[in-house]
Amino acid sequence: MPEQREAHEAILDRLHRRLRTLCQCTNTFFQAESEQELLQSICGILVAGGEVRLAWIGYCEDDAEKTVRPVAQAGSGLDYLERVKTSWGEMETGQGPAGIAARTGKACWVDDIRTDPRFSPWRVAALARGYASCMAVPLIAYSKQRGAVDLRGTLNLYSAECNAFDESAVEHYTGLAASVAYAVTALRGHLAEDLAYGVTALRARAERKQAEEALHQAREELAHVTRVTTLGELAASIAHEVNQPLAAIIADANACLHWLEADRPDLDSVREALAAVVKDGDRAGEVITRIRALLSRSSVAHRPCDLAGVIRDVLLLVGPELGRHGTVLQTSLATDLPPVMGDRVQLQQVLLNLLLNAAEAVRNVPPERRRLVVRSTLERRDDGSWAVVAVEDAGVGFREEQAGRLFEAFYTTKPGGLGMGLSISRSIMDGHRGRLWATANSGHGATFHFALPGMR
Ligand SMILES: Nc1ncnc2c1ncn2[C@@H]1O[C@H](COP(=O)(O)OP(=O)(O)OP(=O)(O)O)[C@@H](O)[C@H]1O
Ligand SMILES: [Mg+2]
Asked: Residues 154-186: pLDDT tens digits?
C-alpha cells in the first residue's frame, strides 16, 4: 500500500500545482493589457509551475517556409528557439508536434525525444538542453455561439522527463490553450475597438460574452479539480465504505453456495442471504453513485433542488471519515426547507468543503470538543424566505485578523492545504445568488453559514 499512497500523493501534488497555475493564468486573462503581455505571462506561469522546462507560443506565418514563429517564450534553454526551425507545412520541419498540431488542430506529443523519429530534426539541440518529451496544443477554442476561434498558433511545452504528457496533461493543456485563444480574441477585439472607437455595441457584447465564457470555463475546471482533490482526501474512508458491503456480499454468497450443496437445501436461508446480498450491493452502488456525481466534469444548469437531500448525501459521504477520527456529528435539520434553484453537485461541494474544514479544525483538540453540528433553518426576511445551512465546530477557531482573509484564494494555515475550498465555495454561492459567511463562536470554534433564496 505505501507505493499506492505515494502514487496517489504524487497525483494530488500535480493537481495542486496545475490548479495554482490555472488560477494564475485566469488572472492574467483579465489583467493583461496587450496580446504580447498575455502570451508572455502564460509561458512564464507555466514554467514557474514546475511541470515544464520550456514553454513557448508560436504563430503560423504564411511565408514560403510556412514558419511557426515564436512570439512568447519562457524557461531554460531559450536559445533553442533561435537555433531551430519549425514549420506548419508538410516538409520535415513540419513533422514535429508544433507542425502537426497546427495542421490538424489537435494536440500532438512526443513521449521520448531520444527515440521518436518525427523529432529527428531537433533531437540533438533538444537533448543538449535537457528536454526529454514535448507536446504542442493548438490555440483553438470551440464555442456553441461562435463556432471555432482559431488563432493559428500553438502552445509548446517541453519537459525534462520522458512520458510527461499523459491523458490528463493533454486534456488540461488543451483546455488552457482554448482559454488563451478566447482571451486573445477578446483582447484583439478591444484593441480594434479602441482604434476605431465607437464600433457597434453589438460587438462589445459578443466580446464580453467570450470573456465571460473563458472565465466560466476556467472556474468550472477549478471547481472540478478541487472536487477531485477533496475526494482524494476521503479516499481511505470511501474505500472502506465500499469494501464493507463487498465483504458481506462475498460471505453471504459463500454461505449460499454451502447451503445449496446440501441434499435438501435450506431455501429459506438462501433466500434471506440473497436478499442481504442485494441490499449490500445497493449500498455499495449508492456510495459509488454519490462519488461519480461529484467527479462529473461539468455541472448542469440550475434546477429546483432539495437541500435536505443535498445535506443527506454529503453527510453519508463524510460520516465515515469523521468517525475514523473520533469526531461526533450532530444534526438539527428543518423539515420545512423550501426548494432552492441550484446545481446539486456544486451545492454538495460547498457543504463538503465546510465539513472537511470543520473536521480539520477539531482534529487536534481534546476529544470532548471533537463534535460538529450541521443545522438547517428556514429564515423569513423582508426579501423572502431563505434556506440557511450552518456547520458549527468547537475546534481551533480563527482570530479576528484572520477573518477577512479566510475566503481569499490560496489563504491557508494548513501544511497540506491549498486554500481554495472557501474561495471556490464563495464563488459557487455567488453563482446561486446566495451568501457564505463565517462567525466566531462565543465558546470554542467557528461556524460557517450559507444562505440560499427559497423558491417559494
Ligand atoms: N472551521 C474552521 N475553523 C477554523 N479555521 C478555519 C475553518 N475553516 C477554514 N478555516 C481557515 O480558513 C483557511 C482557508 O480554508 P480553505 O478551505 O479555503 O482552505 P484549506 O482548508 O486550508 O485548504 P483546501 O483548499 O484543501 O480546502 C484554512 O486554512 C483555515 O485557516
Ligand atoms: Mg478546506
From this structure: 999 999 999 999 988 898 898 889 888 878 887
250-263 pLDDT, tens digit per residue, is: 888 888 888 888 88
* 408 close to 417: Cβ distance less than 8 angstroms: no
Domain boundary residue, one of 274, 295, 316:
295
- The answer to whether residues 347 and 397 belong to one domain is yes
Residue 222 shares a structural domain with residue 250? no
Cell numbers placing 321 = 471519515
Name all residues whose Cβ lies below 6 A of ligand 1.
353, 357-358, 361, 393, 395-398, 406, 411-414, 417-423, 446
Q: 134 to each of 59, 112, 126, how far by Cα in Å? A: 18, 8, 10
Number of domains in the chain: 3
List the domain range (segments joined by +) for residue 443: 303-453
DSSP H or E segment with residue 233: helix 201-233
How far does the centroid of ligand 1 lie from the alpha carbon of residue 338, in Å?
A: 29
Ligand 2: centre distance to CA 110 (Å): 37
Q: Which residues of the chain have pLDDT under 70?
A: 1-5, 7-9, 12, 143-147, 189-209, 211-212, 215-216, 218-220, 222, 232-233, 236-237, 295-300, 456
Identify the residue whose C-alpha is closest to ligand 1 atom 31. 413
Mutation probe of ligand 1 site: the residue of 401, 422, 448 with most atoms within 8 A of C-beta = 422
Query: Is there a single domain that holds both residue 242 and residue 191?
Result: no
Among protein residues, the one with the nearest Cα to ligand 1's atom 9 is 357
Q: Which atom of ligand 1 is nearest to the CA of 395?
A: 3
Q: Are residues 139 and 215 in the same domain?
A: yes
Cα distances (Å, whole numbers) of residue 334 to 197, 330, 340, 379: 56, 13, 14, 11
Q: Is 407 helix (H, G, I), strand (E, B) or coil?
A: coil
Identify the nearest ligand to the CA of 418 by its number: 1
Do 62 and 200 lie in one domain? The reply is: yes
Q: Which of 406, 425, 428, 439 to mutate to test the pocket of ligand 1 (most atoms within 8 A of CB)?
A: 406
Pair (86, 173) in one structural domain: yes
What does DSSP say about strands 303-305 and 133-143: parallel, antiparallel, or unpaired? unpaired
